Amino acid sequence: MKTILITGGAGFIGSNFIRFFLDKYQTYKIINLDKLTYAGNLANLKDIENNPNYKFIKGDIANQELVQYIFSEYKINYLINFAAQSHVDKSITGPTPFIKTNIEGTQVLLEVAKEYGIDKFIQISTDEVYGELGNKGYFNEKSPLKPNNPYAASKASADLIARSYYQTYNLPVIITRSSNNFGPFQYPEKLIPLFITNALKDKELTLYGDGKNIRDWLYVKDNCRAIDLILKQGQVGEIYNVGANNERTNLEVTEEILNLLGKDKSLITYVKDRLAHDYRYALDTTKIKELGFKAEYDFKRGLKKTIDWYLEHY
Ligand SMILES: NC(=O)c1ccc[n+]([C@@H]2O[C@H](COP(=O)([O-])OP(=O)(O)OC[C@H]3O[C@@H](n4cnc5c(N)ncnc54)[C@H](O)[C@@H]3O)[C@@H](O)[C@H]2O)c1
Question: Is this prediction's pTM over 0.70?
Answer without folding.
Answer: yes
